[in-house]
User: Fold Glyoxalase from Sporosarcina globispora.
Amino acid sequence: MGRLIHFEVHVDDMERAKKFYGEVFGWSFQDWSEYAGMPYYGAVTGNEEELGINGALMQRQGPPPEANQALNGYACTLGVEDYDAAEARILENGGTVAMPKYALPGMAWQGYYKDTEGNIFGIHQPDANAK
Assistant:
């Protein structure tokens, strides 16, 4: 026990967030609002044969994160095949850079972004030649 099995992204504008994650990462959504008693959409992040987990977008229950405040929670990082192409999709769909691309030498390219709802997430492209 203890393995991460689900995540929730808190959002102000559900349709805007669904569009962002759908366009950028290809996620699809299932309306689970009836079960949750609030706007709540299950996020299917990939096919069942791939390593990873599914999660949800849920209606934010308080104020959004303030600009420049320290991260208070988990930061989810998404694996990508092409870092630069993923960054371009993020920016084209209303996301912004929180921490620019940097090398994890000999391992990967990493960076952090803000989604349309002000949440921080990372992207990670494995690359043994990163430096």
User: Anything to note?
Assistant: The first strand starts at residue 8 and ends at 11.
